[in-house]
Each structure stands twice: as C-alpha cells, then as structure tokens.
Write a structure and sequence with these properties.
single chain; alpha/beta; seven-stranded parallel β-sheet; two-stranded parallel sheet; 11 helices; 13 strands; 16% strand
Length: 342
C-alpha cells in the first residue's frame, strides 16, 4: 500500500511493548482510517479511531480470516516470552499462532503483512562489524526465542513463494526498550519479585564484563515509526533496526559510573542456569547463550528505502528505561501494567 489514507490496519499483540507504540502512532496519523487492535485482554485505553477485539492467536477457535476481512494491512506483533520452562507452550503461540495469522492474511486477501522478526533470528555473527539483511537467519537452536524467530523466517520464505500477491515486510529490530515497558520487561526477564529500585548505579559494586556481551538497543517508538513507514512505502523483505552505539560493559560503565570487571562466560552462565533451574529467574541460560552470539546489524537499508533513522541514541534509550525500572513505570494494558517491588 503506497498510502495509508483511509486505510484499515489490524495489529496483533496490540497491548504489548511494541503494540502500544504502533497503535498510538497509527491513531495519531490522520491518514489512517481505522485501527483494530487484537489482544487476549482488552485494555482500558481508547486511542482515536481504534477498536479492540479479544483474540488469542494460539486458539484454533479464533476466526482470524474473518477478523482480517477488509484490512489493508496486518501488523503481526503477538508473541509470548514465557513460560521459558515449557517451550511447547510458547511454540503453540509464537509459531503455530503466527502460521494461523499468515494463513488468515492470505485467505482474507490482505495486501500487506508486516511481521515482527528480530535480531534473534540471525545466526551467530561478528561483534566487531555489522551485517546486513542477507546474513543467515538460522538463529541459535538451543534457545526457544531464537529458534522460533528463525523458524518463522522459513515459514515466510514459503509463504512469499505461494502468495506473491501479498507484500511481506520483516522487521528485525534490536532489543526494544521504553519507559513504559520497564515493569513488563522486569517481570519477563528478571522475575516478578526483582525490585526495580535495585537498578541504581550506587548499589552496583561493579559491572560484570562478559566476553561477547555486546548488543544493540532501540527505543520502541523508533521501531514503531519504521513499521508505519513500511506501510507507506512499496517495499518488501527484511529491515534491520537499531540505534547507535552498540551496548557493552564499557558503555554501561560510563553511563552508570561503575567499574567493569571481567567475568568469565562460564561463571555467568552457571549463575543464570542455577537461578533459572530454581525458578528464581525467568530468563534462561539458553537465551544468554544466544545473546552472546548475536551479530551487530547494519541499518543502511532502512535508512535508504524507508527514510528511517532512530531519534534516540542507545544511551538515551537505556537511561529512560532504567528510570522507568526504578519508578515501576508501565502502561494501561494488562501486559504493560506498572508495578513497584521492594
């Protein structure tokens, strides 16, 4: 779709970290005719020209093709990070649910599908240079998140061959943060009872410097702008999305005024594995292994073909997120609700 004028956009996973930013920006765009947000739990939030529908994409009873009728585009964001101890459950939502979304897009003859892939779809890659969208997308097979993201890349390869009439765009963002996502992400990765106020520089005696722990970050609102730009431009394929500079212990140490101390990978992984095994930490050691192997992404294609540039640096993104973490920030949706602990 070359123009969003009067268009009807359906957003799955509309109440999560990315979904709330995408829906808000769609609602603020006067060229968009209407927005239908899909979520398991309807929020107490009423953006302009936005309707809500209670839909669980993992349920075989959901008639997604009927839901997508008359849509000009579907932005597919729905994703379950937990339970990390039960990968069959996340597979049912993330992979089988996504396949239902793709099939429904074809059945309803929706002309545009924008899919939330991830840097996690990429095969292990370099930390000292960037890679473009041609880098292999086989993920890290031992982690459920990266395995599922990579599998869906193969599903979309086949979908594009079978349905060339559908314009498919795959967004591959770096780690996404905003102030309002702080409480949700603390619960997902740190656990429900990890006190947010502990994320204070003065309480850190040192900062673990783990070999390979060099990643990219991006503000969720900047990622959402790229999704909207992809609706307006006649583009297909994958787009890397990340802000500069890359995040490592040196950058975090400068931000927090804390001294980095080298910590062997094996020691860090053993601690994470022990906490995960005792159900004290939701983030699995397998995801830790994957993060250490993620490549750094080159975002030239998004800049040239979408006219996209992030408005915030990685430093600004992390500063905002840490403030939100300390203050128990959240949004008025079930997944994002703020909560202070401690």
């Amino acid at each position: 779709m070359s123009s969003t004028t009067g268009s009807r956009i359906v957003v799955t996973g509309a109440t999560g970290n990315v979904g709330t930013s995408v829906v808000r920006q769609l609602a603020e765009n006067s060229q968009v005719g209407s927005v239908l947000g899909l979520a398991r739990r309807i929020p107490d939030w009423s953006p302009a020209r936005t309707e809500w529908s209670p839909v669980d994409i993992a349920s075989e009873r959901s008639d997604l093709a009927d839901t997508f009728a008359d849509a000009d585009a579907v932005i597919h964001l729905a994703w379950a990070f937990q339970p990390t101890h039960d990968p069959a459950t996340t597979w049912r939502t993330n992979v089988l649910g996504s396949i239902r979304v793709f099939d429904a897009v074809a059945a309803a003859r929706v002309p545009t599908l924008v899919h939330a892939s991830s840097v996690g779809a990429y095969s292990p890659g370099p930390k000292n240079r960037t890679v473009n969208e041609s880098w292999p997308t086989h993920g890290w097979p031992d982690a459920a998140y990266t395995r599922e993201k990579a599998y869906l890349e193969r599903v979309l390869d086949l979908f594009e061959r079978e349905h060339p009439e559908v314009r498919v765009v795959r967004m591959r963002p770096a780690f996404l943060f905003k102030r309002q996502s702080a409480s949700e992400q603390r619960r997902i990765f740190g656990g429900r009872f990890l006190p947010g106020p502990l994320a204070r520089p003065e309480l850190l005696p040192f900062l673990p410097d783990i070999p390979g722990l060099r990643v990219q970050a991006l503000h969720t609102d900047d990622a959402a702008r790229a999704y909207l730009l992809a609706l307006e431009a006649e583009v297909r394929g994958a787009f890397n999305l990340a802000a500069e500079p890359p995040v490592d212990a040196e950058l975090l140490g400068e931000m927090l005024g804390t001294r980095p101390v080298r910590l062997p990978r094996a020691a860090a992984r053993s601690a994470i594995a022990a906490a995960w095994g005792l159900h004290l930490l939701p983030a699995s050691p397998h995801l830790f292994d994957a993060v250490l192997r993620l490549p750094l992404m080159d975002c030239t294609r998004a800049r040239v073909e979408l006219g996209w540039r992030p408005e915030r640096t990685a430093n600004e993104v992390l500063e905002e997120f840490l403030q939100g973490l300390q203050q128990g920030e959240g949004a008025n949706t079930a997944p994002m609700r703020g909560r202070k602990v401690g």
